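Worked Example 4.2. Consider the chain below.
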Amino acid sequence: MHKKITTLGLSALLGLSAAAQAKETIVIGEVTWDASLAIENVLKVVMEEHLDVDVEIIAADQAAIWAAMDKGKGSIDVHPDVWTSSQTQPWAKFVAPGSKESVRANSTPYLGTDGFFIPGYIQDEYGVKTVYDLAKPEIAKLFDSDGDGKGEYWPGAPGWSGVKINQVKAKGYGFDEYYTPVIISDSLVKAQLKTAYRKKKGILFYYWTPEWIHSAYDLRKLEEPTFTGYAGDSKKGHAEYNPDGCYKFNDTENWLADSSITCGAPTTEVYVAYSRSLESRAPAVANFLKNVSFDAAEVSQWIYSIAEDGEEPADVAKQWVAQNPMLLKAGSANNGCTALLIPINRVVPVQVQPFHLRGCNARTLQVKPLHAPFRRTEPVLFSVSYHRSGIDAERKAYNLMANKMSLPRPAEIEVCDSEIGGVDVRTYLPNGRVPTGRIIFVHGGGWYLGNLDTHDAFAAIFPTIALSLLLRLITG
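Applying the procedure from the previous section yields the following structure tokens:
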């Protein structure tokens, strides 16, 4: 399902005053796949409802989106779904350190995979398991829909840079001479997939996860050789650069001859990109986009609702935002907290072993902690005086103990203090690392001790986006 969406600003609809109409307008570029459609609408709802801006969505190809973000004039400000594996050239030109750096990206991407897929019934009956199996005339016939003696495969839709990459792969795997690339729209190939399944015919196409079609059909990804690194000048400085790597793509006039790819792509980091000009034009929006985070499973559910259930993208976005109160509102004047999308689909309790208290009496505590954030080479010795002094004195002692025994939080962690429903919350962002999940952390203390600071170092060690909640303590 794909629709061009252009949204009028609220001031135009409501006839507000000239002063109210001075809102900044943020323009999101819409590309042609469902994940982008879902994400752009969630971004739109959040920015309009929480950041006091108007948002327009306009259809454009990726080259135009990158060019507009680079110029920073506001014609297009945001690319909602940048697959770095297929956008190596613009990423190197506009985003990478040392480049023009005219485009920014969010700190925490979600992870996607891509490759060549076939129906499960074809694999089961004919044993087609690897991309090299495609380079057999008898296998190519399984994918020949027009009777010309050659199979067909879909490398992507018009305007996608992945179209070139997948044709380079076909050459590298040796099946290009047996197949014709058919470059058609994403919606049309999905219609062909539906027909192929109904007739139990062969279909070979490039695709990715997350996507709803993997829930609707039994699709099998063909095995490719292991990725050994990016080669080529455009990838110098990349963490996975290898001059002898298997993945070399040069987007030149003679791109097919100048490129060589003989392996699958690594798991792809998928980002939200935005024009650097937003940092001055709309700082709150830029701050939000820097820290916004999505979960691949959540994106898949949005896609399914839009593409399979036929729901309007804007309605899916509004429902999701309304149903997820873990949306930290941006723009707090006193802390500059950033809006974060943190879907909490299920809560898994995690039990941790408490540290030991040794040599304890009313005057002196000798603490030998067990956990990483509190680990020191020698026991920590300090004195406290709270014997028979009540809760306030115990809290002071507890806070002193935590302060003395805790190590500083890791330097790569970004921290934001905010409030949700009257509860103080500290959010930890694993800056520079892809988080493995999301955690709600509630500090200990028997309902009368502890706060966000006493457990700060502990909450910061999780390889996740963590929310530490401040309990309402009993009074005494």
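Residues 1-21, 325-388 have pLDDT under 50 and may be disordered. Residues 238 and 304 are 34 Å apart (CA to CA). Compare this with Example 4.1 before moving on.
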